[in-house]
Amino acid sequence: MKNIKYKVLAGYLLVLFLTSGCEKFLDKPLENQQRSEEIDYTNLSLMYAPVSGIYRAAADDRLVHWIDLSIRTVREDDYQQGAPSANDNPELMSIKNFQRDATVQSYWGLNQSWISYFSLAIAANSALTELKLFAAAIPSGNTADAALNRRYQAEVRFIRAYAHLMASRLFGDVPILTDSDDIARLATIGKSTAAQVRQFIIDEMDACIPDLEDLRPNQATHQGSVTRYSALLLKAKAAADLAGNDNASPHWNTVLEATDAIINSGKFSLYGDFYQLFKLPGKLSNESLFELQYSDFGLATGDIVRPGVDWGTFFRWQGPSGDQRGSAISGAGWVPPSQNIVDFLNARNDSVRLKTTILSYGATTDTYATTPSGDRIYGNPFGIKYFNGKTYLPSSQMTPGRMEYGANNNVRILRYSDVLLLNAEARVRKGQSGDAPFRLVRERAKLNPITGVTLAQILDERRAEFACEWWGERFNDLVRTGRAQQVFGSRFVPGQSEFVPIPQAQLDANTNLR
């Protein structure tokens, strides 16, 4: 029997080379990391542990850190500002105005965003190292476990690729970290272009798709895990970024082929109730291609949050601020929806999405508005009118005895409506009709069908469908279609404002990032 010491280097080297301003990687240990005990890699019953650890790392602040959420969303016109008060993290307003001065570059929040994504990539590389050690211990005739190991590696590679997509959408040209040896090169590793990052993602997904389960995530062996359809959508999104606004780009063929494969599988459908899609009934629905999973374990007492895992950085951060009279429907009130998105949805008579996306405060601190589910929301002292309805969990859906905002809900990341709208866009750009997939999305929103749908109508539909969904789809759509300056005016400078600057702490640690 061969015992190999489990080595955890990534966290310590990351702290050394990627100095953080607020939190450091491995402040909270990952589930799959064991610092002092030995792992028997011939015990294949342990093989899923590294994979489980990466899913948990993604959910534990790596993809939902509150400041990264704020930085990513504040650049959109769908959000009013970052903090309830402009005096709290004023750098966020500078980022909203596309400023790139020394104050912004030295902002601890930018550094934290960088660390969140690249610590997840490094953790994924460590998990892949472990999985390869398990693979080496699998007997040559054991084809079932060999295939299982390949599937586990593909799931981890998906999350690593998604971390790179988010990092590149925010910072532009960034390093590609694909090997455990990269941790020894963090002080010298160079950048890849944004286009190279997208191609890396496409190549990764092509390599992973054959090894992933041919199921919806809610059908997967480990329910909610990545399947080949998750990878197909990630591939399509990377290809759409590469295609940009060029209708003749061959990357639109990639988008169409990938989304056609998802649609033609017949496995996915839109969840009928858009309002409930983002609440407990919509967890891991047939619309879901990837979401971060959380649970309060259905118990009335005890610690709600597993050690190191807290949905509060996502849900409570966006919950209604102010004195809510002891209500569980409360939070920090950050990244409130803008009047702009409210007016946009109203002008479209988009009542279903408006009801779901935008919830109101009371007019004053002594008066309240009532949510569609009957919860009272009192006004706040900041003059903020709205909070994000897509992160709202009604008190009626909370576990009695565990009334905590967002508890037991999941964070939706990839949805089938994205597949349909990307498919419609690719078809229209290629001179085909996009009416059929487009119609399904509008039907769910109780909107009339459109015949001969145009690119502009598809992009408007994307804005309405994904409004205030925290991943920056609106901003990314404006950038990739060349419409950002049209929306933001002279404060957006093409060739400069698309990305935030690489944090000064990272430039100081690695001059090759300059």
Structure commentary:
The longest helix has 29 residues, at 108-136. The strands form 4 sheets. The protein has a two-stranded antiparallel sheet with strand order 1-2. The protein has 20 helices and 8 strands. By secondary structure, it is mainly alpha-helical. The chain is globular, with a radius of gyration of 22 Å. The protein has helices at 10-17, 49-62, 66-74, 91-96, 102-105, 108-136, 143-171, 194-208, 228-243, 251-264, 274-277, 315-318, 339-347, 351-357, 416-429, 435-444, 455-466, 473-480, 484-488, 504-509; strands at residues 3-5, 38-40, 288-292, 358-360, 368-370, 376-378, 386-388, 411-415. Helix 2 runs antiparallel to helix 6, helix 7 runs antiparallel to helix 8 and helix 15 packs antiparallel against helix 16. The chain is 43% helix and 5% strand. The chain starts with a strand and ends in a 5-residue tail after the last helix.
Structure in a nutshell:
Helices cover 43% and strands 5% of the residues. It contains 20 helices and eight strands.
- Estimated structural class: mainly alpha
Largest sheet: 2 strands, antiparallel
List the strand order in the largest sheet. 1-2
Fraction in helix = 40-55%
* Number of DSSP helical runs: 20
Find the count of extended strands (DSSP E, 2+ residues). Answer: 8
Strand content: 5-15%
Give the termini distance in whole angstroms: 48 Å
Low-pLDDT segments, ≥5 res: 1-36, 303-309
Average pLDDT metric: 90
